[in-house]
UniProtKB/TrEMBL annotation:
Statement: the UniProt record of this protein carries the keyword Magnesium: yes
Enzyme class, first EC level, given as a word: transferase
Record's catalysed reaction(s): 5-(2-hydroxyethyl)-4-methylthiazole + ATP = 4-methyl-5-(2-phosphooxyethyl)-thiazole + ADP + H(+)
Gene Ontology MF: a single term: hydroxyethylthiazole kinase activity
Pathway of action: Cofactor biosynthesis; thiamine diphosphate biosynthesis; 4-methyl-5-(2-phosphoethyl)-thiazole from 5-(2-hydroxyethyl)-4-methylthiazole: step 1/1
CDD domains attached to this UniProt entry: THZ_kinase
Function per UniProt: Catalyzes the phosphorylation of the hydroxyl group of 4-methyl-5-beta-hydroxyethylthiazole (THZ).
Record gene name: thiM
Protein name: Hydroxyethylthiazole kinase
Length: 261
């Protein structure tokens, strides 16, 4: 239902993202059936954010000035009731990234916080040592997702082998995806934009929209791998965009593996 809704409504997603993934993000949104616009200038971000279906703030190649403009855009989105997705790329890697992510979280009401376990852990002051066996990863990540959602009053999406989504009370684990998604740059970044497209058409239940978006994305990764495993990751990247475009609601609902915890 939600995938059809995105394709029918073609929501405008205002992306303030990093220079590495800009083209991939725009093409991924188009493949899904949403409309991307990348805009950064102080003179226009508030206006664009307030008419968009969702606003994505991704700090991947940040500068202090860009963060200032993200906050202007984020506050305009808040006033207009437009959901805001934050991807705190590299939080924990440098104090600058951690502090700028926290600045956004303090000054903007973030609807969805999407990051890998290390990034989310650094924002809530948890020791970022989350790599290891499956059980341990998802066990740790459940607590991490819940705590982040409560602390920042948002829906958190902690991605990895198993993706964990929480609104602070309810937790869902998504067992889809493929390791090759980590061999193509920016799949996490594009996922933030894709979540934006789903929440744009399902604003009354952000967690449900995020669960749908993340499972759809994982199923697309699996289908792309099935088509290109003999060829390699260059072909996989293209096939992944193809699958974002081709996947049907029926296939997503049949192949997704969602567990309520
Ligand atoms: N080991 C894995 N197995 C299956 N899927 C995975 C695995 N690791 C990551 N993914 C999937 O890859 C996508 C990106 O998640 P990831 O956690 O790698 O984001 P990220 O670290 O922010 O990536 P980037 O910074 O490159 O954009 C998600 O859809 C996630 O489910
Ligand atoms: C490689 C890289 N460096 C800064 S942002 C980015 C894209 C992946 O998140
Ligand atoms: Mg990332």
């Amino acid at each position: 239902m939600l995938l059809t809704k995105v394709r029918n409504e073609n929501p405008l997603i205002h992306c303030m993202t990093n220079v590495v993934v800009t083209n991939f993000t725009a093409n991924g949104l188009l493949a899904l059936g949403a409309s991307p616009v990348m805009a950064y200038a102080n003179e226009e971000v508030a206006e664009l954010a307030s008419v968009a279906g969702a606003l994505l703030l991704n700090i991947g190649t940040l500068s202090k000035e860009q963060i200032d403009n993200m906050i202007i855009a984020g506050q305009a989105a808040n006033r207009a009731g437009v959901p805001v997705i934050l991807d705190p790329v590299g939080a924990g890697a440098t104090p600058f990234r951690t502090n700028m992510s926290k600045r956004i979280l303090n000054q903007v009401e973030v609807s969805i916080l999407r990051g890998n376990a290390g990034e989310i852990a650094s924002l809530i002051g948890v020791e970022a040592s989350v790599k290891g066996v499956d059980g341990a990863i998802s066990g740790d990540n459940v607590a991490l997702a819940k705590q982040a959602a409560m602390e920042f009053n948002c829906v958190s999406v902690v991605t990895g082998e198993v993706d964990i989504i929480s609104d602070g009370t309810i937790v869902h684990a998504i067992h889809n995806g493929h390791p090759w998604l980590t061999k193509v740059v920016g799949t996490g970044c594009l996922l933030g934009a894709v979540i934006g497209a789903f929440v744009a058409v399902w604003k009354h239940n952000l967690a449900e929209a995020a669960v749908y978006a993340v499972s759809y994305y994982g199923v697309a990764g699996e289908a792309a791998f099935a088509r290109t495993q003999e060829e390699g990751i260059g072909s996989f990247q293209q096939a992944f965009l193809n699958e974002l475009h081709l996947l049907t609601e029926e296939t997503v609902e049949r192949k997704r593996r969602i567990k309520a915890l």
